[in-house]
């Protein structure tokens, strides 16, 4: 298309150069600029795309979109805009043929529960004969059996439009997507016509970026502001969460708020909740009707995730009774309270992505309700992230566990020892915790100390299959490590048992009394 067509939806752009220039692609990475590419200069937290404009032109870029006026000697068309992130979202939508207009999009935001809720919505949509794509922390599902690894919880707007375009081409009619606070703050979802927005909860996280809970909440609220200015779209909000109630109070006058939770004023209300190792059941009350809900996911927090997903599916036009039935077959969400061990083992091991104090507290409360003999928790804190939550994480782990082992998570550019030292300040019972920097050895220590009836929780990384250390990602999957170590442990025990059995047989043959094992 021409540059004129590409920027047709931009707000008052000032253009120098020919608007008839042919544009075939967009990029915000100067290394990917070629002939026919429009380079968009984005301002980031660590670098500024405006510093790479000359490199993009030298690489062959056919046009520049920037927040500053062009120099006198510029050799390519230049589009001067107020916000390049907004311009990128708008231009990318035009370039891809506005794929969002053909999809019913459900966005899920909040601190905890986004991934599980999106997985459940995606499952219900597909089971309800509405082929859907998925964008989230674990994977991008583009429909038609095509999946690609996720790079971000919510990718940049350019990638979002490309992924939505592929979903459309693969026959999708809907999309369930996680919407992070970073994405909202950086306009990655600008202009998307959300049909439903779910708010799960808000607890301390990302305060290295947002500075305060109030700012964090204000950014999250933007998703619901987007819905409010549209002629339709449902806001689905956790009414048991204090920040959720603030959202409800702000938007209830729109007449498009659906409340979910345990409270009597919830539109989607859960009562009589029961769960065990096999899953959860509860009664769902909606507009005077009652449904028995069964889910393979465990715990109170997964009841909230199920409620949000059922309400979103209903808002997207699915039959509620059918959705309740289809929830029984929901998939295990990778790394979300995922049981790694089989029923036959002496103790159970769970891996969970919990990396905030609230998430860790909720997971441990759920596991405690399963009545284990003890809970042994292995956890860490991410480097180059909110340092203030580290001792709070330790306090949450200690409060819900019998034994805590604090270890390395993704230290990134920080020293693992200093991160662990920050976290350890939150402990109050010195005899009930240990610090083991090597994550594999920390997991080994937990498994070797586990006894009959115990539960071991490996928290913080969930589905991740790497550890990020000093800018490099090293292969590391908690689930795989647990299985490897369990195999070693049981193989070793089997060898000892076989050796003792052989000794018994030898003693019998020699006419001596076998000793007790």
Question: How would you describe what is shown here?
Answer:
The chain is of the alpha/beta class. The chain has helices spanning 3-6, 53-59, 84-95, 114-127, 157-169, 181-185, 207-210, 213-228, 242-251, 300-315, 320-327, 357-369, 390-400, 416-424, 439-449, 478-509; strands at residues 14-16, 25-27, 37-40, 63-66, 78-80, 104-109, 132-135, 139-141, 147-149, 174-178, 194-199, 234-238, 257-261, 268-276, 279-286, 289-295, 338-339, 348-352, 375-381, 403-408, 433-435, 455-459, 466-469, 472-475. An 11-stranded mixed beta sheet has the order 9-8-7-10-6-11-12-13-14-15-16, with helices on both faces. It has a 6-stranded mixed beta sheet with strand order 17-18-22-19-20-21, sandwiched between helices. α3 (84-95) packs parallel to α5 and α4 crosses α10. The radius of gyration is 26 Å and the shape is globular. The termini are far apart. The model has no long low-confidence stretch (mean pLDDT 93).
How do the helices and strands line up, and which of them pair or pack?
Blueprint: H1 3-6, E1 14-16, E2 25-27, E3 37-40, H2 53-59, E4 63-66, E5 78-80, H3 84-95, E6 104-109, H4 114-127, E7 132-135, E8 139-141, E9 147-149, H5 157-169, E10 174-178, H6 181-185, E11 194-199, H7 207-210, H8 213-228, E12 234-238, H9 242-251, E13 257-261, E14 268-276, E15 279-286, E16 289-295, H10 300-315, H11 320-327, E17 338-339, E18 348-352, H12 357-369, E19 375-381, H13 390-400, E20 403-408, H14 416-424, E21 433-435, H15 439-449, E22 455-459, E23 466-469, E24 472-475, H16 478-509
Parallel strand pairs: 2-3, 3-4, 4-5, 6-10, 6-11, 7-10, 11-12, 12-13, 13-14, 18-22, 19-20, 19-22, 20-21
Antiparallel strand pairs: 1-5, 7-8, 8-9, 14-15, 15-16, 17-18, 23-24
């Amino acid at each position: 298309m021409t540059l004129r067509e590409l920027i047709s939806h931009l707000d008052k752009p000032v253009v120098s150069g020919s608007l008839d220039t042919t544009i075939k692609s967009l990029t915000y990475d100067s290394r990917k600029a070629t002939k026919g590419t429009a380079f968009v200069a984005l301002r980031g937290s660590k670098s500024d795309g405006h510093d790479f404009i000359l490199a993009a032109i030298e690489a062959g870029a056919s046009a520049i979109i920037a927040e500053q006026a062009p120099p006198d000697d510029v050799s390519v068309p230049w589009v001067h805009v107020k916000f390049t992130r907004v311009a990128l979202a708008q231009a990318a939508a035009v370039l891809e043929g506005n794929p969002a207009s053909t999809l019913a999009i459900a966005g899920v935001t909040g601190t905890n529960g986004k991934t599980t809720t999106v997985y459940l919505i995606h499952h219900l949509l597909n089971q309800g004969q509405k082929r859907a794509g998925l964008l989230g922390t674990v994977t991008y599902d583009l429909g038609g059996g095509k999946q690609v690894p996720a790079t971000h919880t919510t990718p940049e707007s350019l990638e979002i439009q490309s992924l939505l375009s592929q979903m459309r081409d693969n026959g999708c009619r809907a999309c369930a997507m996680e919407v992070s606070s970073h994405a909202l703050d950086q306009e990655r979802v600008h202009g998307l016509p959300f049909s439903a927005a779910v708010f799960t909860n808000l607890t301390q996280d990302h305060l290295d970026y947002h500075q305060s809970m109030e700012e964090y909440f204000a950014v999250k609220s933007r998703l619901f502001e987007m819905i409010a200015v549209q002629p339709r779209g449902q806001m689905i909000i956790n009414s048991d969460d204090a920040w959720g109630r603030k959202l409800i109070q702000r938007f209830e006058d729109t007449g498009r708020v659906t409340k979910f939770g345990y409270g009597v004023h919830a539109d989607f209300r859960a009562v009589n909740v029961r769960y065990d190792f096999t899953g959860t059941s509860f009664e769902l009350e909606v507009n005077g009707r009652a449904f028995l809900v069964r889910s393979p996911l465990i715990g109170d927090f997964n009841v909230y995730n199920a409620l949000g997903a059922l309400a979103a599916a209903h808002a997207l036009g699915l039959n509620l009774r059918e959705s309740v039935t289809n929830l029984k077959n929901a998939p295990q969400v990778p790394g979300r309270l995922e049981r790694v061990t089989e029923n036959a083992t002496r103790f159970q091991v769970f891996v969970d992505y919990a990396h905030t104090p609230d998430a860790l507290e909720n997971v441990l409360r759920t596991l405690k309700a399963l009545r284990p003999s003890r809970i042994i928790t292995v956890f860490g804190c991410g480097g180059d992230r909110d340092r203030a939550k580290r001792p709070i994480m330790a306090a949450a782990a200690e409060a819900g566990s019998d034994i805590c082992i604090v270890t390395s998570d993704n230290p990134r550019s920080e020293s693992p020892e200093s991160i662990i030292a920050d976290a350890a300040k939150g402990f109050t019972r010195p005899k009930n915790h240990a610090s083991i920097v090597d994550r594999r050895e920390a997991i080994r220590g937990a498994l070797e100390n586990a006894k009959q009836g115990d539960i071991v929780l490996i928290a913080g990384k969930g589905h991740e299959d790497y550890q990020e250390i000093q800018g490099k990602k090293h292969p590391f999957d908690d689930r795989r490590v647990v299985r490897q170590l369990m195999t070693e442990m049981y193989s070793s025990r089997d060898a000892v048992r076989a050796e003792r059995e052989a000794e018994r047989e030898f003693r019998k043959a020699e006419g001596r009394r076998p000793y007790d094992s």
